[in-house]
Specification:
Blueprint lengths: L1 H20 L17 H4 L4 H15 L14 H15 L10 H16 L6 H6 L7 H12 L1
Helix pairs in contact: 5-7
The structure holds heme C.
The site of heme C has 19 residues, from helix 3, helix 4 and helix 5.
Length: about 150
């Protein structure tokens, strides 16, 4: 009885619901922001620092988000979109020119702090993106540049 319920009801219901939620897609269009408004142009970090920030932070904290293939699959897509929206709202490296001098300083300090604590990049992201896993030296490099 239990097995029949599972095969005849639960699995089909799951498949139908999974199919239906696919219709709720996410908006993956990145609003184009000229490079001169971004942190890489304004602060001109050393090449390696720039590459690390791009690889480890830009997917959520810039307008150059790269969406992988699984970002097409709900509910993973919704969850990723939330991260990008929240991340950009708090800190958008593409719109560095919008921030005042004080705001920039506080965002840099906060970045250094969160990298040090290994809270950024967020852990689920690091698991999927090996290029965003910072080793000790890379973390040190980023932290010291952010604190400058
Ligand atoms: C997978 C997405 C993702 C990545 C990658 C990521 N972040 Fe974040 N970041 C977030 C989200 C989401 C928040 C907002 C957290 C909250 O408030 O709940 C956040 C918050 C922050 C904040 C706090 C801003 C504030 O004013 O509170 C800083 C600073 C920050 N991130 C820096 C970084 C840095 C530096 C990197 C790269 C080393 C990075 N993040 C990588 C998603 C990400």
């Amino acid at each position: 009885m239990k097995r029949i319920l599972k095969r005849r009801v639960l699995i089909p219901v799951f498949i139908i619901v999974f199919g239906l939620i696919q219709f709720k897609t996410i908006d993956k269009v990145n609003m184009v922001v000229p490079a001169e408004f971004g942190i890489l142009t304004i602060e001109t970090p050393p090449k390696e620092v720039g590459e690390l920030i791009s690889a480890a932070c830009f997917d959520c904290h810039s307008n150059t988000t790269k969406y992988p293939w699984y970002s097409n699959i709900a509910p993973v897509s919704w969850w990723m979109k939330k991260h990008v929206e929240k991340g950009r709202e708090k800190l958008n490296f593409s719109k560095w020119s919008d921030y005042s001098e004080e705001k920039r300083d506080s965002l840099r300090l906060k970045s250094a702090e969160l990298i040090e604590k290994k809270w950024m990049p967020i852990i689920s992201y690091k698991i999927i993106h090996p290029e965003a896993q910072l080793d000790e030296d890379q973390r040190e490099l980023l932290i010291s540049w952010m604190k400058k």
